[in-house]
Amino acid sequence: MTDPSSSSGARPVYLRLRDLIAAAILDGEFAEGEMLPSVRAFAAQQGANPLTVAKAFQQFQDDRLIAVRRGVGMYVLEGAAERLRNAERASFLEHEWPEVRAKLARLGLSAEDLLAREEGSGVPAT
Question: Which helix (H) or strand (E) holds 73?
Fold first, then answer.
């Protein structure tokens, strides 16, 4: 995972931490049915305040993606990755994609340009 302070400074730290946790769940780093690191351990790993990490984890609890087993710890619920993927996809399409699409239009880039770059041929000459 990456340093939460290296992401966009405009977003609150707990949301940047939330994004890191979401990515770890989607990537299988925090697999369904498995334990999550403790708030203190994750805070130490990320160089964040434990209260801020707790706030990020709480959002996942509220969304019923993780649960707490008293005396044991937190774990990722079954089906969490798919529910999270659907929610993240919807959020991206509603909030981020319009900005990305507008920037692509301003720069004169098409989907083909992006795919060509991904395949290693670089940005087309203008």
Answer: strand 73-76
